[in-house]
Design goal:
With about 160 residues, the protein is mainly α. It contains four helices and no strands. α1 runs antiparallel to α2. The radius of gyration is 18 Å and the shape is elongated.
Length: about 160
């Protein structure tokens, strides 16, 4: 795969990660604001599918295309901006993995409330607050990665 194609696939992957993450967050927040378990269950179900199809695929492709691109261009993975990008990528994953599980639980709790026509349980609200809180660091880490990719600053490792 040529450098231009690797760069394109890598940029598309970054765009998918950022765009899907922002879109998922927006739709989950808007569904939550309705307070309607049926709406929340539906949106959370769609979000889980989107995360599986788009986010998970991009999560796998990003380090692969990044590594191949660095090799193609001749960049060392020990360059400061690349090392920092990789660290932020790992940190993003640390916040993202629990979010995926929480989205599944939010969907299931909303479905159960919808089926019994009960209000959303406290467990739902507790998990939603955690989901919301995990989104901020992950969002800003991705912005940091994008900034590093675009600017490639000289950052000494030691």
């Amino acid at each position: 795969m040529g450098e231009e194609l690797l760069r394109l696939v890598h940029v598309i992957g970054a765009t998918v990660l950022f765009g899907t993450g922002a879109g998922i967050a927006f739709f989950m927040v808007m569904a939550h604001r309705t307070g309607d378990p049926k709406v929340i269950a539906h949106v959370a179900g769609t979000v889980v599918i989107a995360d599986t199809i788009f986010t998970a695929t991009a999560v796998i492709l990003q380090p692969v295309t990044g590594y191949l691109l660095a090799q193609s261009i001749g960049w060392s993975l020990e360059e400061g901006w690349i090392a920092l990008s990789l660290l932020l990528y790992v940190l993003t994953g640390i916040f993202w993995l629990p979010v995926v599980w929480i989205q599944l639980r939010l969907r299931d709790l909303a479905r159960a409330a919808s089926e019994t026509e009960a209000p959303l349980p406290e467990a739902y609200h507790h998990l939603y607050r955690i989901w919301f809180a995990c989104g901020f660091p992950a969002f800003f880490f991705v912005i940091g990665i994008l900034w590093l990719m675009l600017n490639k600053p000289s950052i000494p490792l030691f």
